[in-house]
Design brief:
Length: 309
């Protein structure tokens, strides 16, 4: 029963991630009418969207997203508490660590909610990474089995993919914070791009960057995305024999993440694709944490099969 509750909380965290992304991108002018020409001029118009005067003009989809976000966040808080209180005595060491982490992150996200939205990119980054970490912790509890969980090849690959996913969340957050989503509308932006350390700094809020630095953000983000795709491909190959469904899901989620990222930079439905891009990231965190939690079980099953043969 505890695993079912943890899984339900996972799905609600994905909902929180998607609704939060939708609200954030709308406030930043992503997908404004006449995209992408309207994007930069829309910043001043949407920056104060949370104020009382602007609230009256808030579109219905945004109001629905805000309501969905609040309800989901409340339910997740309750479910995480239920998992920790009623499941603690039956949990193994790894699951208890995950439950404690889930509780800590839930409290942190509730506290950050008081300061969101905020001009400081660090607040947005902490919210996004916290959501991914919470989803991963809950997925670990839902997927963990009563086995020795020493690192296996599958577990190491899944953890590496999770680390790359966190790196991608950082890069994506900074692209949005620097209003650079439309800075690289071509498959490659290598010519003229420049990696600027300051543009990656989440502690710098009102930082104006030029076109070269904005393109550099995209180049770094896409390089990390390709690295994640490679790790996901290796992981799917390792899982294809014993868990073909899991391998297929990882391949599907990885492909969708790449396509949605490209569509956000190149296409016309930026608000929709950016929102889905964030939602798929949360689903990937859930899937990868589940694979990592059960990686040792998979190795043990393979060893037993080999001995039987």
């Amino acid at each position: 029963m505890i695993r079912v509750v943890a899984l339900l909380a996972c799905l609600l965290v994905v909902c929180i991630t998607a609704s939060s992304a939708f609200i954030r991108h709308w406030q930043n002018g992503v997908g404004c009418e006449g995209w992408p020409a309207c994007y930069r001029t829309a910043q001043s118009a949407t920056h104060g969207a949370a104020s009382a005067s602007a609230a009256a003009a808030t579109p219905a989809p945004v109001r629905i997203a805000r309501a969905l976000h609040r309800v989901s966040a409340t339910l997740v808080g309750v479910l995480v508490l239920l998992v920790a209180v009623f499941g603690w005595s039956t949990m193994g060491r790894g699951e208890r660590i995950a439950a404690a982490l889930a509780l800590l992150v839930t409290v942190l996200l509730a506290w950050l909610g008081r300061y969101t939205p905020h001009d400081l990119p660090l607040v947005t980054l902490a919210n996004l990474l916290g959501g991914l970490l919470l989803a991963a912790a809950l997925a670990w509890i839902a997927a963990a089995r009563r086995t020795d969980r020493r690192a296996s090849g599958v577990t190491r690959l899944a953890v590496a993919a999770l680390a790359l996913l966190g790196l991608l969340a950082w890069g994506g957050t900074m692209i949005g914070a620097r209003h650079a989503i439309d800075a690289c509308p071509t498959p490659l932006c290598l010519a003229g791009s420049r990696l600027d350390a300051a543009s990656f700094d989440p502690m710098q809020a009102a930082l104006a960057i030029d076109a070269a630095a904005a393109q550099g953000l995209h180049v770094a983000h896409r390089a990390a995305g390709l690295a994640l795709a490679l790790v996901l491909a290796l992981l799917a190959l390792r899982l294809r024999a014993a868990r073909p469904a899991t391998a297929a899901w990882l391949a599907l989620l990885g492909t969708a993440q790449l396509l949605l990222g490209a569509a956000t930079a190149l296409g016309s439905q930026a608000l929709l694709t950016a929102t889905l891009h964030n939602a798929i990231a949360a689903l990937l965190a859930v899937a990868l944490a589940g694979v990592a939690a059960s990686g040792q079980s998979l190795r043990s099953a393979r060893s037993s099969s080999a001995r039987s043969a």
